[in-house]
Amino acid sequence: MQQKRNIQIIEWEDLDKRKFYSFGVFMTMTIRATVYPATLIRTRLQVQRGKSLYSGTFDAFFKILRAEGVRGLYRGFMVNTFTLISGQAYITTYELVRKYVSQYSEDNTVKSLVAGGSASLVAQSITVPIDVVSQQLMMQGQGQHLTRFRLGSDTEGGKPKKKVFGQTRNIMAQIFAADGFRGFYRGYVASLLTYIPNSAVWWPFYHFYAEQLSKMAPSDCPHLILQAMAGPLAAATASTVTNPMDVVRARVQVEGRTSVIETFRQLIREEGVWGLTKGLSARIISSTPTAIVMVVGYETLKKLSLRPELVDSRHW
């Protein structure tokens, strides 16, 4: 009975690091590509005033699809792929901090909370400049009137401009001209206030839900299924708790604001408390498949990356 209740956690020292990083890049890229359209929709919903452009998640999806095509749902995706670096930094930091904290506490909740928050701090320091640029690209098309920066003409000297990174350079040049280097870290504090709590909450709840589900499930139920169910539950919990700051973060970064507090006050003043829930459904919708893919991918990644001598000693 005890075996059934305890889902084994593969720790850092159990892994073959070469396999871990090789498989990890592929896993992260797959997740990014899967959930990017929902991320784009969430950003546009959070930045719009009231319901000036879209009435909700599905309305936004179909309007973007009709007006901009499938490519419209992937605006800014190429530059966003550079977050692969932050993804690997996040995973490494999480596992190393878990190992470090275990020297002082064996409580899994404590290890998960501290490691999750620390991993997010490191990852956001890398991610924010990428997010600032990719969010400006996300807002082009139907949402371009909501942002400070617009893409230039698609032609130059009568010849078509190169797309993809040409648009990225265009936006980066405008950001630097307007705000200097600091412009690429606009919303950094808001991002930390959003993602550090989100990550710190997600991991403890993930392990909590997995343990609770294991107590209710049949003893022969594969642990991976329980973990795949626990992931979305933890994601929905963390998204609900941190969504107000996520709305503020999106507005600070896209609209070029400097004050997190003033942005928060204006949001409450103009749209009331319900303004703090903007984009929540899109966030949960995007976080659900993300959590499933991430959990299944991450737990499978760790299983595949186990040192050979440990493979037969683990029960899944």
Automatic annotation (TrEMBL):
Signal peptide range in chain numbering: none
A Pfam family: Mito_carr
Keyword Transmembrane helix found: yes
Biological process, per Gene Ontology: branched-chain amino acid catabolic process
Keywords from the UniProt entry: Membrane, Transmembrane, Transmembrane helix, Transport
Main location as per UniProt: membrane
RNA-binding as UniProt keyword: no
InterPro entries: MCP_dom_sf (IPR023395), MCP_transmembrane (IPR018108), SLC25A44 (IPR042164)
GO molecular function list: branched-chain amino acid transmembrane transporter activity
Membrane topology annotation: Multi-pass membrane protein
Subcellular location: Membrane
Family under the similarity heading: Belongs to the mitochondrial carrier (TC 2.A.29) family.
Name of the protein in its database record: Solute carrier family 25 member 44-like
Organism: Stegastes partitus
Gene (name only): LOC103368875
